[in-house]
């Protein structure tokens, strides 16, 4: 039986040319939007009607790069030089993570993301079956991939690759289709070239996209040149990575020529402004990437290098820093930042029918409470969404047409238990 | 009769060397903190006790630069070149502002600020008696000043100066001492030198500090050189502005020599990172200013160029952008960003006994709800305050020992009426 319901008197961010916002009606049937317009549609008397007055509906936010389980290390070492942070803080702790830790750390992040309006997340980590279980339980949409570091003997490399392939094969399309998978060599500086080529082959065999870190720091770009005589973009191109649909995270340090190569191969970029600033990696050339036609979306990166999962903050940072750094106040306008957090996010994660409010699209959507001081006056709700709003303004969240957050409370997860178990995991890890 | 109450089991951000946070007890008597420590103090049986479990107490945030009434223009023209924004959007609308508009616009901002944990704001605008009334009604602390643009005939200049002086004299110390005043020539590029000198004389006569805009854009610095043969810092020094306690807003474009001059005269700087990025003014040299010993605090600037009044966002931007732009991940650590938003803010606004949680200080303070995913694990509450928190995490707010926000609701203002009247003001202004 079809589940059908309607919103009346809502405000909907449709981001259409000349009409960024529609005031009116939306009908959802099962997982899809079947009507969206100013005119009241004909519906049966039994159709449930929700009053959308004081609610601003946006497409669900898409977080295109992260390591959710790292929430367990939030605030555990900040304001440190990158190598000190990694070698003395992150890596020793992460080496101790059990499957259970990944389950609770990911649950903590998924809870924060859902309540903050993120309906899809891309996650690259280890113990990915645990992450997939959290996606199943939570009702969220997840694009999941086992990130493999290849600095190990060939037999360990093989074991990790097999694990990554098995995960990608087993879980693709699971959770009523809410889980899709990718193939991920971690980064050019952590995977030898021949190992990366094996991932490319696996991605071809499984017909899956590739996700990897690329050119996050100037130092790693220089190392790539020293080791392989090429900058990372040309190096990955040579290894065949861009022969697959590909999403690269960070892409902070790029030449004009590299931007052209990314555009040519339609490589999507996950821009992580909060993480890049906090770790002092630099400021990505986002206006130039967008101008070249590259799909640029937004990611929080792991919660230990951000330190929250508020995608409104990433959208705002994207809209703000490129103005300040370029000196051009028209760089990355509000509507473009919103598209980066929604439509371009879905495209970067290779998801069809997600990321926009329109008939035929999946009902992955969120409603903000606009009955608040910082949403007044009612001048421009796209501007308010980017320059004024935060995760805490999210009132309701739906994924695949099912409500997962109602009046700020998560309907699918046991919030109190997750908070308790995540704290317990951290305490155990820090005393091991 | 003394009003005395106590918090038990609270967590208090004291930012002391080696002990950033204390878990324990705080006693407040009337407007002051009279006890703060780990040991339970002896109190009478009648003393009201508040449970502070899951609450993180911070000093109230101090917003050291803004134009509160400009909330009426939030979202009215974004992503535009500065001169287009000013000349086609802001100025024509502001010219129509009545006293009533300033009252409701300021009320909207004060509501947002109080609920978001800001207990003191510096405000430079017109119709300042209206702003003062809002401060009286709301229970907030305000450092108020009539900002005067001097691009007008001498008789109009004189009238404006007289008005600014009368306001500063009449309102200093009002609202049980919660209002203090300053003297404000708007900026070196909007006030002729001889007019600025009259403000300096007035500030001497009234024994008040001076507040002005300075070096916000590269263009205005160049214009100053063209017009007066000096960059703005030397120009203002020459005119005697720094012979008074002084607070300059923005200070984005500074040479090493200018930083030395500001340090020598103990001029305080209000850093406005959100506004500076959004208007593409540039990135202030905050690490260098702090290193030179300059007091750097934080301001939101007007809500039309920000576009919210979330001081947590300004603290986070200050902690993030200077890392990303300088390439140094240790620049502006979390505790320093928190001091910029609190202790240095109070110092910049020339307020004694405000800005820290310590015995003898005014009980201007806020409590955040830490029972949320993004405050876990309980690793480092100073880090969480800066890198994870937002205005919406504020649960309670006290100014001068009196509670003004309780469980997220403002006790002193009629929220619904303010939202309605602010929207009405905007609608009237936009159809005039």
TrEMBL record, chains A, B:
Question: What keywords is this UniProt entry annotated with?
Answer: Hydrolase, Metal-binding, Zinc
In terms of Gene3D superfamilies, this protein maps to: Metal-dependent hydrolases, Urease, subunit C, domain 1
Query: Which SUPFAM superfamilies is this protein grouped with?
Result: Composite domain of metallo-dependent hydrolases, Metallo-dependent hydrolases
What is its cofactor?
A: Zn(2+)
Q: Which InterPro entries match?
A: Amidohydro-rel, Deaminase_MtaD/DadD, Metal-dep_hydrolase_composite, Metal_Hydrolase, MTA/SAH_deaminase
Q: Which reaction does it catalyse?
A: S-adenosyl-L-homocysteine + H2O + H(+) = S-inosyl-L-homocysteine + NH4(+); S-methyl-5'-thioadenosine + H2O + H(+) = S-methyl-5'-thioinosine + NH4(+)
Specify the Amidohydrolase-related domain's residue ranges. Answer: 58-404
Which E.C. number(s) belong to this protein?
3.5.4.28, 3.5.4.31
From what superkingdom does this record's organism come? Bacteria
- Which residues hold Zn(2+)? 65, 67, 213, 301
**What detail does the entry give on cofactor binding?**
Binds 1 zinc ion per subunit.
Instruction: Write out the residues that bind substrate.
Output: 94, 146, 186, 216, 301
Mention any Pfam family matching this sequence. Answer: Amidohydro_1
Q: Which GO molecular function annotation, any one, does this entry have?
A: 5'-methylthioadenosine deaminase activity
PANTHER family from the entry? AMIDOHYDROLASE-RELATED DOMAIN-CONTAINING PROTEIN, AMINOHYDROLASE SSNA-RELATED
Family classification: Belongs to the metallo-dependent hydrolases superfamily. MTA/SAH deaminase family.
Record's function text: Catalyzes the deamination of 5-methylthioadenosine and S-adenosyl-L-homocysteine into 5-methylthioinosine and S-inosyl-L-homocysteine, respectively. Is also able to deaminate adenosine.
Its name, as the record gives it, is: 5-methylthioadenosine/S-adenosylhomocysteine deaminase
For this protein's source organism, the top of the classification is: Bacteria, Bacillati, Bacillota, Bacilli, Bacillales
């Amino acid at each position: 039986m079809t589940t059908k319901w309607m919103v009346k008197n809502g405000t909907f961010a449709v981001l259409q040319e000349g009409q960024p916002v529609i005031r009116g009606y939306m009908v959802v049937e099962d997982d899809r939007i079947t009507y969206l317009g100013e005119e009241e549609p004909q519906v049966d008397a039994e159709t449930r009607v929700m009053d959308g007055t004081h609610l601003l509906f946006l497409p669900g936010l898409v977080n295109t790069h992260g390591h959710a389980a790292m929430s367990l290390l939030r605030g555990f070492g900040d304001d440190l030089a990158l190598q000190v942070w990694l070698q003395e803080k992150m890596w020793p702790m992460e080496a101790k993570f059990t499957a259970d830790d990944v389950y609770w750390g990911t649950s903590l992040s998924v809870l924060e993301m859902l309540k903050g309006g993120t309906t899809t997340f891309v996650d690259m980590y280890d113990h990915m079956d645990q992450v997939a279980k959290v996606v199943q339980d939570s009702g969220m949409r997840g694009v999941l991939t086992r990130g493999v570091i290849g600095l190990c003997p060939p037999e360990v490399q093989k074991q990790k690759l097999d694990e990554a392939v098995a995960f990608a094969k087993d879980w693709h399309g699971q959770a009523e289709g809410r889980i899709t998978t990718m193939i991920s060599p971690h980064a050019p500086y952590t995977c030898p070239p021949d190992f990366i080529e094996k991932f490319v082959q696996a991605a071809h065999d499984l017909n899956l996209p590739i996700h990897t870190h690329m050119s996050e720091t100037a130092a790693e770009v220089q190392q790539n040149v020293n080791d392989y005589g090429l900058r990372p973009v040309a190096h990955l191109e040579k290894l065949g990575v861009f022969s697959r649909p590909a999403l690269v995270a960070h892409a902070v340090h790029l030449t004009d020529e590299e931007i052209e190569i990314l555009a040519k191969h339609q490589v999507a970029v996950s821009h992580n402004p909060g993480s890049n600033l906090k770790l002092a990696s630099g400021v990505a050339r986002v206006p130039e990437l967008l101008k070249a036609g590259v799909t640029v979306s937004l990611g929080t990166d792991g919660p230990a290098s951000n330190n929250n999962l508020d995608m409104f903050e990433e959208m705002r940072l994207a809209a703000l820093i490129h103005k300040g750094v370029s000196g051009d106040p028209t760089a990355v306008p509000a509507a473009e930042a919103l598209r980066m957090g929604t439509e371009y996010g879905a495209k970067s994660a290779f998801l069809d029918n997600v990321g926009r409010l329109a008939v035929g699209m999946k009902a992955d959507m969120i409603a903000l409470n606009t009955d608040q001081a910082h949403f007044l006056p009612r001048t421009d709700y796209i501007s308010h969404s980017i320059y004024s709003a935060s995760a805490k303004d999210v009132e309701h969240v739906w994924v695949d047409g099912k409500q997962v957050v109602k009046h700020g409370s998560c309907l699918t997860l046991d919030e109190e238990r997750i908070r308790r178990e995540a704290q317990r995991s951290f305490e155990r890890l820090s005393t091991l």
